[in-house]
Write a structure and sequence with these properties.
Strands 24-23-22-21-25-26-27 form a 7-stranded mixed sheet. It has a 6-stranded mixed sheet with strand order 7-6-3-4-5-20, sandwiched between helices. It has a 5-stranded parallel sheet with strand order 17-16-15-18-19. With about 650 residues, it is of the alpha/beta class. It folds into 3 domains: about 260 residues, Aconitase, domain 3, CATH 3.30.499; about 150 residues, 2-Layer Sandwich (Aconitase, domain 3); about 170 residues, Aconitase, domain 4 (Alpha-Beta Barrel), CATH 3.20.19. It has 24 helices and 27 strands. Helix 2 packs across helix 3, helix 10 packs parallel to helix 13 and helix 23 packs across helix 24. Bound molecules: iron/sulfur cluster (SF4). The site of iron/sulfur cluster (SF4) has 12 residues, from loops. Iron/sulfur cluster binds next to loops.
Length: about 650
């Protein structure tokens, strides 16, 4: 039987298991990436595991989420990361050099290789034919130490693209169309493989916009095959020799095929406050817009910003609207500057930001209260922008720029009709001052160039909490939550909180504060307890602090209708038992109920038990399910992955 691209790459890297959907497989990891939010824990865990040196072909540490320096804590974290990268043998990308996915794509992403990253949008270089997966920091630390990465073999879905994008419809609209059709849960347990004549017509930046947004579908990864466009793009980055040919066999079998006719697509938005709340732009035409931001890891490439620049040439940003451009990498900024586009945009009224995540997680450029912000980002979860009652729309750079010109949401096709001289910008490289200048890696320090000798830890860098074994018998339902609780709800990523990312004792005070600001104190007073949630608990980022901090507060188990993939793995990694409940049980449980798990959980975890009985207020009972592999059970029984790996090293 023929193979899909996914099966070919996984087959080449398989060290345990079989490529049967739903079965756990262990794969060898070629490259890892980590960023500043998750990176400090990764290296502290690497240190706690007594590992000496990075064992993967390549590891890269980026500083992108919080690059602004509010006080010494952030700077200390960056210095620690640089020292860890130097000590253990990783590349270090300096603060301001750009967002991990963009910089990794430019400098290291390679077709046919596996990449594991402690950031949920790690699948971005799937557009270049790399099989890239997001995971928790501890999984990254173990992979860097040479251990396999374990994941349930996903189903491989073929997204077959026909036709060609019409003027003003973009790759962002392909991704938004899929989100509207499939929802934020539609990709769980799946890898999306993009094929067909429509896929061949897309440029590499267009493909990576689509693979980046695959994360919003809940997908394990997304990938395109490789072709001449891939080869050309790699050549522009002086990395042509890394090209390998990758395409599915003619008789490859997919679990499912989704057909998309690109000719039918039109400019779309994701309305507040979920990426799957998708509608044609025309439905919101006339809505006043106070802020527009073009950039992020989704649409921050040079080729993403160029259309905005072309649309703004000789025009002005509306007086009632602020427009910010935040390139995804310094390379993109430099190319725009060298070609004169930066000056053009500045003359039009654009405010330029450094290449950072920043506004995407509410660090800088927080929208005004009760206002609309149009962003080319990938997430518009309520409150993520830094203000609780935000109204963030996601869209393409073209739609964002049209709104900046008019001060209100407008279909760019209507604006083009009205203005008469506004042409669809297209995606060809810059023409003003010649082709793009190619790779710039001046801000990346290679392991050979490392300038630190040993780890440098400031006073805000704490220890990794360690738990020994599990002792789970239930407790008070300290919080009952709705569907789609994100890791942003569990541990917000805003600057005032994120600065404690290396100090778990302090950070845990903010656990679930966006849902209930009394939670952390109540958990401490009750000496721990359990959490109850609806569907898709832990959606969003790979932030392992969202499991680490609840563990620190004594949370033993989470009862939820379903779990997001990375967060569920993080719960195992930190010894919290993820137990699935049905909708009826969810409805019956109230916050404050006493939930006693009647069965012996440690014994059941060890013996492979899948069902556990729990008694509520000594009045009624329900059954909760534990869906865990043998390895995940061992991890739970050890109290978490750090203890488990240590025991294995010690021969325990
Ligand atoms: Fe940064 Fe936002 Fe991309 Fe995450 S989604 S990597 S915060 S730009």
């Amino acid at each position: 039987m023929g193979k899909t691209i996914t099966e070919k790459i996984l087959g080449d890297h398989l060290v345990e298991g079989e490529l049967t959907p739903g079965e756990e497989i262990g794969i060898e990891i070629d490259q890892v990436l980590t960023q500043d939010t998750t990176g400090t824990m990764v290296w502290l865990q690497f240190e706690a595991l007594d590992l000496d040196e990075v064992q993967t072909e390549l590891a890269a540490q980026y500083c992108d989420h919080q690059t602004y320096q509010f006080d010494f804590k952030n700077t200390d974290d960056h210095r620690f990361l640089r020292s860890a990268a130097g000590t253990y043998g990783a590349y270090f990308s300096r603060p301001g050099n750009g967002i991990c996915h963009q910089v990794h794509k430019e400098n290291f992403a390679a077709p046919g290789k596996t990449l594991l990253g402690s950031d949920s949008h790690t699948p971005t270089p799937g557009g270049l034919g790399q099989l890239a997966i997001g995971a928790g920091g501890l999984d990254i630390a173990v992979a860097m130490g040479g251990g396999p990465y374990y994941v349930e073999m996903p189903e491989v879905v073929n997204v077959h693209l026909e036709g060609e994008l019409p003027e003003w419809a973009t790759a962002k609209d392909v991704a938004l169309h899929l989100l509207g059709e499939l929802t934020v849960k539609g990709g769980v347990g799946k890898i999306f493989e993009y094929t067909g004549p429509g896929a061949e017509k897309l440029t590499i930046p267009e493909r990576t916009t689509i693979t980046n947004l695959g994360t919003e579908l809940g997908a394990t990864s997304s990938i395109f095959g490789t072709d001449e466009k891939t080869k050309d793009w790699l050549a522009r980055q002086d990395r042509e020799e890394e090209f390998v040919e990758l395409e599915p066999d003619d008789d490859a079998e997919y679990a499912e095929t989704i057909e998309v006719d690109l000719d039918e697509l039109e400019p779309l938005v994701a309305a507040p406050s979920m990426p799957d709340n998708v509608a044609p732009v025309s439905e919101y035409e006339g809505t006043d817009v106070e802020q527009v931001i073009v950039g992020s890891c989704t649409n921050g490439a040079y080729e993403d910003i160029l259309p905005s620049a072309k649309m703004l040439e000789g025009r002005e940003v509306a007086k009632q609207t602020e427009m910010i451009v935040a390139p995804g990498s310094k390379q993109a900024s430099e190319m725009l500057a060298r070609e004169g586009w930066t000056a053009e945009m500045m003359a039009a009224g654009v405010n330029f930001s450094e290449a950072t995540c920043g506004a995407c997680i509410g660090i800088g450029h927080v929208p005004a209260s009760d206002s609309v912000s149009l962003r080319t980002f990938n997430r518009n979860f309520e409150g993520r922008s830094g203000i609780e009652d935000d109204s963030v729309f996601l869209c393409s750079p073209e739609v964002a720029t049209a709104a900046a010109i008019t001060g209100e949401i407008v279909d760019p096709r209507d604006l083009a009709d009205e203005l008469g001289d506004l042409e669809a910008p297209g995606l060809e490289m810059g023409t003003k001052y010649g082709p793009g200048m190619g790779r710039d890696d001046n801000d990346i320090i290679s392991p050979e160039e490392a300038i630190d000798d040993g780890l440098v830890k400031g006073p805000n860098i704490g220890d990794v909490p360690l738990k020994d074994g599990i002792d789970v018998d239930g407790g008070e339902a300290l919080l009952k939550m709705e569907d789609n609780i994100t890791t942003d709800h569990i541990i917000p990523a805003t600057a005032d909180i994120l600065k404690f990312r290396s100090n778990i004792e302090k950070l845990s005070e903010f656990t679930l504060s966006r849902v209930d600001d009394t939670f952390a104190q109540r958990a401490l007073d009750a000496d721990g307890g359990v959490l109850v949630a609806g569907e898709n608990y832990g959606q969003g980022s790979s932030r392992e602090h969202a499991a680490l901090c609840p563990m620190y507060l004594g949370i033993e188990a989470v009862f939820a209708q379903s779990f997001a993939r990375i967060h569920k793995a993080n719960l195992f990694n930190f010894g919290i038992v993820p137990l699935a409940i049905d909708a009826e049980t969810y409805e019956r449980i109230d916050q404050g109920d006493d939930i006693e798990i009647v069965d012996d959980v440690p014994a059941g975890v060890n013996s492979g038990e899948t069902e556990f009985t729990a008694r509520v207020n000594d009045e009624w009972e329900f059954t909760a399910e534990l869906d865990a592999s043998e390895r995940e059970r061992e991890i739970l029984a050890s109290g978490g992955k750090l203890s488990w790996v240590k025991q294995q090293h010690d021969g325990g």
